[in-house]
TrEMBL record:
The lineage of its organism: Bacteria, Bacillati, Actinomycetota, Actinomycetes, Mycobacteriales. Transmembrane segments: none annotated. Residues 172-198 are annotated as: Disordered. GO terms for molecular function: nuclease activity. Residues 3-131 form the BFN domain. Pfam families: BFN_dom. This is Bifunctional nuclease family protein. It comes from Corynebacterium humireducens. InterPro entries: BFN_sf, Bi_nuclease_dom.
Length: 198
């Protein structure tokens, strides 16, 4: 099993249904792995990301306390499997034991511990998508430094990258028609502004 560290890029809502997902990035290949989670888990992750600390221990705090007292802590948090849109995570303890976990719980624990999440390479190959940097910035507000991006990884002229991106956008409830409609709306707004200025 080959585990690859991924970057955490926060909670996002997508599509007309406003489904919630965590975006993880395989930086080496400039590919995005969306992990769908419940709105409740998303709200808790988002509040933690924004510095909120509960007055009383939440479930993840209790779990972390028990792990630290009984085994000496966590050594790794991994996403190890994926089937029909469902991810399986594993929490590796200092004594070598592994605990089966939902990805939302594993991600909460990783954020609380400020640990990286690792993803099995086969899972990344099956479930991640190439997304151009300008699309990530436009639709998700995520901007990568030039040093973080690989210049020769581009959807331009790459049929597989185009297919990956199209499939990801469909899974997020968006289609090429949405882009065309948005572009036409922008053009109309620009024409209207020009008319107003005249």
């Amino acid at each position: 099993m080959t585990l690859i560290p991924v970057e955490y890029h926060g909670i996002h809502t997508t599509g007309p249904e406003q489904f919630t997902c965590v975006l993880l990035r395989w930086a080496e290949q400039n590919r995005i792995l969306p992990v769908w989670i419940s709105p409740l888990a998303a709200a808790e992750l988002d509040s933690r990301d924004n510095g909120f600390t509960p007055r009383r221990p939440a479930t993840v705090d209790l779990l972390l306390d028990v792990i630290n007292r009984s085994t000496g802590g966590v050594t790794a948090i991994n996403i190890i499997s994926h089937f029909e849109g469902v991810f399986i995570a594993s929490i590796v303890l200092a004594d070598g034991q592994e605990i089966d976990a939902r990805p939302s719980d594993a991600l909460l624990l990783a954020r609380a511990l400020e640990m990286d999440v690792n993803v099995e390479e086969d899972v990344l190959n099956q479930a991640s998508f190439f997304v151009a940097d300008d699309i990530m910035e436009e639709y998700f507000g995520i901007r990568f430094d030039a040093a973080d991006s690989t210049e020769d990884l581009s959807a331009s002229g790459d049929a597989q990258a185009d297919a990956d991106f199209e499939e990801m956008m469909r899974s997020l409830g968006m289609s090429e028609l949405d882009f065309e409609t948005e572009e036409k709306d922008r053009d109309k707004d620009g024409e209207k502004e020009e008319d107003d200025q005249l």
